[in-house]
Sequence to fold (281 residues):
Amino acid sequence: MLSVSGFASSHVTRLHPGLLLVTQVVLIVAVTGFTSPSSIIRLSLLPFMALCSWSIVLTSLKSMHRGPWAAFVGGSSLTFLLQYISTALLSRWSFVTSGPSSGTPPQDLKQDRDRTQEAVPEMKNISETLGARLKFGFLAATSFRYSGTPYEVRNVPRFSAQDPNFAPSRKEFLRRKAITILICCLALDFLNLGADPESNAINLSPERVPLFTRLSDVTGQELIMRLFVTLGFGAGVYIFQTGIQSIFALVDVGLGLSEVKSWRPLFGSPWDAYTVRRFWR
Fold:
Protein backbone atom coordinates (compact mmCIF):
# COMPACT_ATOMS: atom_id res chain seq x y z
CA MET A 1 0.00 0.00 0.00
CA LEU A 2 2.81 2.39 0.89
CA SER A 3 4.60 1.63 -2.37
CA VAL A 4 1.45 2.34 -4.36
CA SER A 5 0.95 5.59 -2.46
CA GLY A 6 4.55 6.63 -3.03
CA PHE A 7 4.32 5.74 -6.72
CA ALA A 8 1.16 7.87 -7.16
CA SER A 9 2.66 10.75 -5.20
CA SER A 10 5.86 10.82 -7.23
CA HIS A 11 3.96 10.85 -10.53
CA VAL A 12 1.44 13.50 -9.46
CA THR A 13 4.17 15.91 -8.33
CA ARG A 14 5.73 15.73 -11.80
CA LEU A 15 2.63 17.13 -13.48
CA HIS A 16 2.22 20.84 -14.16
CA PRO A 17 0.18 22.67 -11.46
CA GLY A 18 -2.22 24.03 -14.09
CA LEU A 19 -3.00 20.50 -15.29
CA LEU A 20 -3.56 19.31 -11.73
CA LEU A 21 -5.93 22.24 -11.09
CA VAL A 22 -7.97 21.35 -14.17
CA THR A 23 -8.01 17.73 -12.97
CA GLN A 24 -9.52 18.81 -9.67
CA VAL A 25 -12.30 20.73 -11.43
CA VAL A 26 -13.02 17.80 -13.76
CA LEU A 27 -13.28 15.42 -10.80
CA ILE A 28 -15.80 17.66 -9.04
CA VAL A 29 -17.85 17.89 -12.24
CA ALA A 30 -17.74 14.12 -12.74
CA VAL A 31 -18.51 13.20 -9.14
CA THR A 32 -21.44 15.59 -8.62
CA GLY A 33 -22.88 15.05 -12.08
CA PHE A 34 -22.43 11.32 -12.57
CA THR A 35 -22.37 9.54 -9.19
CA SER A 36 -25.05 8.91 -6.60
CA PRO A 37 -24.90 10.88 -3.34
CA SER A 38 -23.90 7.75 -1.38
CA SER A 39 -21.32 6.49 -3.88
CA ILE A 40 -18.06 5.24 -2.32
CA ILE A 41 -16.23 6.87 -5.22
CA ARG A 42 -16.75 10.27 -3.63
CA LEU A 43 -14.88 9.44 -0.44
CA SER A 44 -12.22 7.37 -2.20
CA LEU A 45 -11.21 10.34 -4.40
CA LEU A 46 -10.61 12.66 -1.44
CA PRO A 47 -6.96 11.56 -0.86
CA PHE A 48 -6.18 12.17 -4.54
CA MET A 49 -7.76 15.62 -4.41
CA ALA A 50 -5.66 16.43 -1.34
CA LEU A 51 -2.55 15.09 -3.07
CA CYS A 52 -3.20 17.39 -6.04
CA SER A 53 -3.49 20.41 -3.75
CA TRP A 54 -0.32 19.45 -1.88
CA SER A 55 1.62 19.05 -5.13
CA ILE A 56 0.31 22.34 -6.57
CA VAL A 57 1.26 24.34 -3.48
CA LEU A 58 4.76 22.85 -3.48
CA THR A 59 5.53 23.22 -7.18
CA SER A 60 3.46 26.15 -8.51
CA LEU A 61 6.06 28.87 -7.90
CA LYS A 62 8.87 26.80 -9.41
CA SER A 63 6.79 25.82 -12.43
CA MET A 64 5.14 29.17 -13.15
CA HIS A 65 7.96 31.57 -12.09
CA ARG A 66 5.51 34.44 -11.47
CA GLY A 67 4.38 34.95 -7.89
CA PRO A 68 0.82 36.25 -8.48
CA TRP A 69 -0.11 33.42 -10.84
CA ALA A 70 1.51 30.81 -8.61
CA ALA A 71 -0.42 32.18 -5.63
CA PHE A 72 -3.65 32.14 -7.64
CA VAL A 73 -3.21 28.53 -8.77
CA GLY A 74 -2.20 27.38 -5.29
CA GLY A 75 -5.07 29.22 -3.62
CA SER A 76 -7.55 27.97 -6.22
CA SER A 77 -6.41 24.40 -5.65
CA LEU A 78 -7.12 24.60 -1.92
CA THR A 79 -10.43 26.29 -2.70
CA PHE A 80 -11.51 23.46 -5.00
CA LEU A 81 -10.40 20.90 -2.40
CA LEU A 82 -12.73 22.53 0.13
CA GLN A 83 -15.43 22.79 -2.54
CA TYR A 84 -15.12 19.04 -3.16
CA ILE A 85 -15.46 18.29 0.55
CA SER A 86 -18.48 20.60 0.79
CA THR A 87 -20.40 19.60 -2.34
CA ALA A 88 -19.44 15.94 -2.82
CA LEU A 89 -19.10 14.72 0.78
CA LEU A 90 -20.96 16.97 3.22
CA SER A 91 -23.96 18.39 1.36
CA ARG A 92 -23.71 15.65 -1.31
CA TRP A 93 -24.82 17.57 -4.36
CA SER A 94 -26.45 15.33 -6.94
CA PHE A 95 -27.86 15.73 -10.43
CA VAL A 96 -30.91 13.68 -9.44
CA THR A 97 -31.99 16.20 -6.78
CA SER A 98 -30.63 19.27 -8.63
CA GLY A 99 -28.90 20.32 -5.43
CA PRO A 100 -27.71 19.02 -2.07
CA SER A 101 -29.00 15.66 -0.84
CA SER A 102 -28.17 16.20 2.82
CA GLY A 103 -28.16 19.02 5.33
CA THR A 104 -30.91 21.35 6.47
CA PRO A 105 -32.91 22.80 3.56
CA PRO A 106 -33.91 26.48 3.56
CA GLN A 107 -37.53 25.51 4.34
CA ASP A 108 -39.17 22.10 4.38
CA LEU A 109 -37.88 19.60 1.83
CA LYS A 110 -40.88 19.69 -0.52
CA GLN A 111 -40.92 23.49 -0.79
CA ASP A 112 -37.17 23.50 -1.28
CA ARG A 113 -37.38 21.06 -4.18
CA ASP A 114 -40.19 23.09 -5.75
CA ARG A 115 -38.04 26.24 -5.59
CA THR A 116 -35.09 24.35 -7.03
CA GLN A 117 -37.23 23.16 -9.93
CA GLU A 118 -38.26 26.76 -10.65
CA ALA A 119 -34.67 28.03 -10.40
CA VAL A 120 -33.17 25.41 -12.72
CA PRO A 121 -36.04 24.02 -14.81
CA GLU A 122 -33.73 22.68 -17.47
CA MET A 123 -32.46 20.14 -14.97
CA LYS A 124 -35.95 18.74 -14.48
CA ASN A 125 -37.54 19.04 -17.90
CA ILE A 126 -34.90 17.43 -20.09
CA SER A 127 -33.73 13.86 -20.09
CA GLU A 128 -30.62 12.91 -18.16
CA THR A 129 -28.25 13.58 -21.00
CA LEU A 130 -24.51 13.90 -20.89
CA GLY A 131 -24.70 17.64 -21.51
CA ALA A 132 -27.18 18.21 -18.70
CA ARG A 133 -25.03 16.30 -16.21
CA LEU A 134 -21.90 18.15 -17.27
CA LYS A 135 -23.66 21.49 -16.91
CA PHE A 136 -24.89 20.61 -13.44
CA GLY A 137 -21.47 19.33 -12.40
CA PHE A 138 -19.84 22.53 -13.63
CA LEU A 139 -22.34 24.55 -11.59
CA ALA A 140 -21.54 22.53 -8.47
CA ALA A 141 -17.79 22.89 -9.04
CA THR A 142 -17.65 26.63 -9.71
CA SER A 143 -20.60 28.12 -7.83
CA PHE A 144 -19.24 28.96 -4.39
CA ARG A 145 -22.13 31.24 -3.41
CA TYR A 146 -24.93 29.42 -5.29
CA SER A 147 -26.27 32.71 -6.63
CA GLY A 148 -29.71 32.52 -8.18
CA THR A 149 -30.59 29.21 -6.48
CA PRO A 150 -32.54 28.39 -3.31
CA TYR A 151 -29.20 27.63 -1.64
CA GLU A 152 -27.72 31.08 -2.14
CA VAL A 153 -25.54 32.17 0.78
CA ARG A 154 -26.46 35.29 2.69
CA ASN A 155 -25.39 38.82 1.78
CA VAL A 156 -24.36 38.20 -1.83
CA PRO A 157 -24.09 41.68 -3.43
CA ARG A 158 -26.87 42.64 -5.82
CA PHE A 159 -26.49 44.08 -9.29
CA SER A 160 -28.48 47.10 -8.09
CA ALA A 161 -28.92 48.36 -4.55
CA GLN A 162 -32.15 50.11 -5.56
CA ASP A 163 -33.73 47.08 -7.26
CA PRO A 164 -32.75 43.73 -5.67
CA ASN A 165 -34.34 41.79 -8.54
CA PHE A 166 -32.49 43.67 -11.29
CA ALA A 167 -30.11 41.76 -13.56
CA PRO A 168 -28.48 43.19 -16.70
CA SER A 169 -29.10 41.68 -20.08
CA ARG A 170 -26.69 39.04 -21.31
CA LYS A 171 -25.23 41.42 -23.90
CA GLU A 172 -24.75 44.22 -21.37
CA PHE A 173 -23.26 41.81 -18.83
CA LEU A 174 -20.68 40.50 -21.29
CA ARG A 175 -19.78 44.04 -22.33
CA ARG A 176 -19.25 45.10 -18.72
CA LYS A 177 -17.11 42.07 -17.94
CA ALA A 178 -14.93 42.63 -21.00
CA ILE A 179 -14.33 46.25 -19.94
CA THR A 180 -13.62 45.14 -16.36
CA ILE A 181 -11.01 42.64 -17.54
CA LEU A 182 -9.27 45.32 -19.61
CA ILE A 183 -9.27 47.79 -16.70
CA CYS A 184 -7.93 45.17 -14.27
CA CYS A 185 -5.07 44.24 -16.62
CA LEU A 186 -4.11 47.89 -17.05
CA ALA A 187 -4.35 48.52 -13.29
CA LEU A 188 -2.11 45.56 -12.45
CA ASP A 189 0.46 46.73 -14.99
CA PHE A 190 0.33 50.20 -13.43
CA LEU A 191 0.94 48.78 -9.95
CA ASN A 192 3.99 46.92 -11.24
CA LEU A 193 5.50 49.94 -12.99
CA GLY A 194 7.32 51.22 -9.93
CA ALA A 195 8.49 47.83 -8.71
CA ASP A 196 12.24 47.76 -8.09
CA PRO A 197 13.44 44.17 -7.46
CA GLU A 198 16.73 45.30 -5.88
CA SER A 199 15.04 47.76 -3.55
CA ASN A 200 12.33 45.24 -2.64
CA ALA A 201 14.97 42.64 -1.82
CA ILE A 202 16.39 45.04 0.78
CA ASN A 203 13.25 46.69 2.16
CA LEU A 204 11.19 43.48 2.24
CA SER A 205 13.95 41.14 3.41
CA PRO A 206 13.07 38.50 6.06
CA GLU A 207 15.01 40.30 8.79
CA ARG A 208 12.81 43.38 8.31
CA VAL A 209 9.54 41.50 8.68
CA PRO A 210 9.36 41.89 12.50
CA LEU A 211 8.22 45.34 13.58
CA PHE A 212 7.63 45.54 17.33
CA THR A 213 10.81 43.69 18.26
CA ARG A 214 12.92 46.23 16.40
CA LEU A 215 11.05 49.49 17.03
CA SER A 216 14.26 51.31 17.90
CA ASP A 217 15.58 50.65 14.38
CA VAL A 218 12.39 51.48 12.49
CA THR A 219 12.49 54.80 10.65
CA GLY A 220 9.67 57.03 9.47
CA GLN A 221 10.53 56.16 5.89
CA GLU A 222 10.12 52.46 6.63
CA LEU A 223 6.71 53.06 8.24
CA ILE A 224 5.56 54.96 5.17
CA MET A 225 6.92 52.19 2.95
CA ARG A 226 5.03 49.58 4.99
CA LEU A 227 1.82 51.59 4.67
CA PHE A 228 2.06 51.88 0.90
CA VAL A 229 3.08 48.24 0.51
CA THR A 230 0.01 47.19 2.53
CA LEU A 231 -2.31 49.43 0.51
CA GLY A 232 -0.74 48.29 -2.75
CA PHE A 233 -1.07 44.65 -1.80
CA GLY A 234 -4.72 45.09 -0.85
CA ALA A 235 -5.46 46.93 -4.09
CA GLY A 236 -3.61 44.30 -6.09
CA VAL A 237 -5.56 41.44 -4.51
CA TYR A 238 -8.86 43.26 -5.07
CA ILE A 239 -8.05 43.97 -8.72
CA PHE A 240 -6.66 40.49 -9.37
CA GLN A 241 -9.68 38.70 -7.87
CA THR A 242 -12.09 40.98 -9.71
CA GLY A 243 -10.30 40.32 -13.00
CA ILE A 244 -10.22 36.55 -12.52
CA GLN A 245 -13.90 36.45 -11.57
CA SER A 246 -14.73 38.56 -14.63
CA ILE A 247 -12.82 36.18 -16.91
CA PHE A 248 -14.69 33.14 -15.59
CA ALA A 249 -18.01 34.99 -15.79
CA LEU A 250 -17.36 36.10 -19.37
CA VAL A 251 -16.50 32.57 -20.48
CA ASP A 252 -19.26 30.90 -18.48
CA VAL A 253 -22.09 33.18 -19.59
CA GLY A 254 -20.65 33.59 -23.08
CA LEU A 255 -20.72 29.83 -23.65
CA GLY A 256 -24.20 29.53 -22.20
CA LEU A 257 -23.12 27.37 -19.27
CA SER A 258 -24.97 29.56 -16.77
CA GLU A 259 -27.18 32.62 -16.59
CA VAL A 260 -26.27 36.19 -15.68
CA LYS A 261 -27.97 35.88 -12.28
CA SER A 262 -25.39 33.27 -11.28
CA TRP A 263 -22.58 35.85 -11.52
CA ARG A 264 -23.53 38.59 -9.12
CA PRO A 265 -20.76 41.07 -8.13
CA LEU A 266 -17.81 39.62 -6.26
CA PHE A 267 -17.63 42.53 -3.80
CA GLY A 268 -20.16 44.96 -2.46
CA SER A 269 -19.74 48.73 -2.41
CA PRO A 270 -16.76 49.88 -0.29
CA TRP A 271 -18.93 52.75 0.96
CA ASP A 272 -21.08 50.23 2.84
CA ALA A 273 -18.13 48.90 4.86
CA TYR A 274 -18.22 51.56 7.58
CA THR A 275 -18.37 49.03 10.45
CA VAL A 276 -16.50 45.78 11.08
CA ARG A 277 -19.71 43.75 10.74
CA ARG A 278 -20.69 45.41 7.45
CA PHE A 279 -17.12 45.02 6.17
CA TRP A 280 -17.30 41.23 6.54
CA ARG A 281 -20.79 41.15 5.04
User: Anything to note?
Assistant: The mean pLDDT is 79. Residues 220-254 form the longest helix (35 residues). DSSP finds twelve helices and two strands in the chain. The CA atoms of residues 127 and 133 lie 10 Å apart.
